[in-house]
Amino acid sequence: MTLYNIILGNSNEPNICLDENTAKTFGIVDNERIFISYGKRKTEAVVNIKTLSDRYTIQLSDCIIQKLLVDTIVKYEILFKNKELIIGPLIGILLGKHERKLKENLERYLVYTLAYKQINGVLFVFSEDQMDFTNDKITGYVFDPETHNNWRRVVLPFPGAIFRRIELSRTTFQALSSKMGKSFFNSSYFDKWEFWNLLSQNKELRGYLPETTKKINKESLDTFLKKYNGVYLKPKSGSRGKGIHYIEKKDHYYQMIKNYDDEIRCMSETEMIKFLSNHSYYLLQQPIRLHAFEDRKVDYRVILQKNETGFWQCTGMIARFGKTHAISSNFKASGFAKEAVEALKMQFGYDELKAFQKYQEIIRVCCKLAFHIEKDVGAYADFGIDIGIDEQEKIWIIEINKRHDHDFPLMIKDRKMYYHVKSNPILYAKHVAMSSLS
Q1: If you write DSSP's letter for every residue of 8-58 in order, what string do you get?
Q2: What are phi and psi of 170, to 5 degrees?
Q3: Angle CA(134)–CA(89)–CA(131) in degrees, nearest 5?
Q4: pTM, 2 dp
Q5: What would you report as the CA-atom Rg of the chain, rounded to the nearest whole angstrom?
Q6: Cβ(326)–Cβ(336) below 8 Å
Q7: Which CATH code, of 2.30.30.100, 3.40.50.300, 3.30.470.20, 3.30.720.120, is assigned to 192-208+290-404?
Q8: From what superkingdom does this record's organism come (predicted)?
Q9: Which of 114, 45, 117 is nearest to 77 (CA)?
Q10: In the CATH hierarchy, which fold is given to the domain comprising 4-88?
């Protein structure tokens, strides 16, 4: 890919000066009026064509550089279509709430720059408090391998694409969504109930979902217990199995165990009614009888992402073997993890072909899920989807993580998968920033 230097021209008018060979390449003629785009800023300019000493140099008037807030230190790719010259890509990663904390962690964020040679242009990180909606600009830290610490503080326009990795205030979220549109991806977060309610409306996906209700009372509890001989009580939000209770009915009392707690608690009807009233922001959910391995619950984390192609793909799949006799499969509590195909062979006794077929079946279900969420909720490019397989080898969708742990592949010592997990959303951001989506 050809890269171009942007330099200051000597015209006081809003002009762009191109080498004659560059102009010919893009089909641009002298004195033509075109638009120049840089991130979310755009301005009109008159083209001047000359023979330049470096054909890969583009000269911009100072007024254009100032209006667009162009970083002239970086080399860029150029795209010209419909009389619009796009200088880019300009990609932002929203990684912190406050600049002070972001600055402290800059070294950690270098992992997001692994694919920089495929990206080119501007790749910068920023925090929520660095966005200035009034003046239409962001102060952030541009990756610059020529500096001593790899980062350079700059003021930029809102970029062609933003990848979100943090929670946002409602005000910021609404303003950023309005500003960026579909080029702000992984933007909307939703809890477990919203997720279940969304997918249950789809006939094809409904069969992969455990029955769930947000009506937390004794009547709902008893209905689930009669139907399934057990029920999970879990928080609408949260992760890593925290706050999950498993409840059964024994004669005239209830028996309950909390995840990560070996103590079984017995409760009368009165005690259970009081307990449920204190957990009204929870869900009741059908227990999936997961196929266990040596008394360990097992589920599969599917890392589904988009890359530079713009299409969903499975970056990796990791099986998580929970603590022995635990009520969930969260492996970080005395469990372990394995690559998915090897885990399927170990868990079910599959041969290589059967394990691969089940692996592909899981991916197909996850892709259907991703398509449906995008259609009804908004733009996404990075999901961590938890899948369970029951004793009849039926696939179940447990939950979806919109801001999942990118370090998961390191649990199975797969650095190649880890690098892809970090890089793919950034490559997708380039696809967005340099396409008509921006």
Answers
A1: E-S-SSSEEEEEHHHHHHHT--TT-EEEEEETTEEEEEEEEEE--SSTTEE
A2: -60, -40
A3: 20
A4: 0.89
A5: 26
A6: no
A7: 3.30.470.20
A8: Bacteria
A9: 117
A10: Barwin-like endoglucanases (2.40.40)
